């Protein structure tokens, strides 16, 4: 009886520790990519208003894509692949719209990407409402 109880306690402690580590990485990834998308959004907004920008939107998008590809591999271990594919799809839409200079459309895709990242961050956080 004691042996089973100790085993259960150890398993629960391991689950909590691993969940804390994965949540931290998930949160860090979502926040970093969201902040990069916000920066891209500001540059695209300046393009819509036909103002000069110091940064090129395609360079920022390239950084975002590289960052996403680097983090995607690790996130795929503990996040649903459908959620990750939604972000990738939106990033591809952003890229396609920026290439043809459809800045208003790309703004919508950037907003969708940020929303999905925030949703992923909230969905995979250990909370009572997420357990039940």
Q: According to CATH, what is the class?
A: Mainly Alpha
Helix content: over 70%
- The rounded distance between the terminal residues' Cα atoms is 28 Å
Unreliable runs: none
Give me the number of helical elements. Answer: 5
User: What's the pLDDT, averaged over the residues?
Assistant: 88
* Apparent shape: elongated
Which structural class is indicated by helix and strand composition?
Answer: mainly alpha
The CATH architecture assignment turns out to be: Up-down Bundle
Rg (C-alpha, Å): 19 Å
- What is the total number of structural domains? 1
Instruction: Briefly note the CATH topology name.
Output: Four Helix Bundle (Hemerythrin (Met), subunit A)
Number of strands: 0
Keywords:
about 130 residues; mainly alpha; Four Helix Bundle (Hemerythrin (Met), subunit A); 5 helices; about 85% helix; elongated
SSE order and pairing:
Layout: H1 2-48, H2 57-75, H3 81-99, H4 103-123, H5 128-131
Helix pairs in contact: 1-2, 1-4, 2-3, 3-4
Could you give a quick summary of the protein structure above?
By secondary structure, the chain is mainly α. It has helices spanning about 1-50, 55-75, 80-100, 105-125, 130.
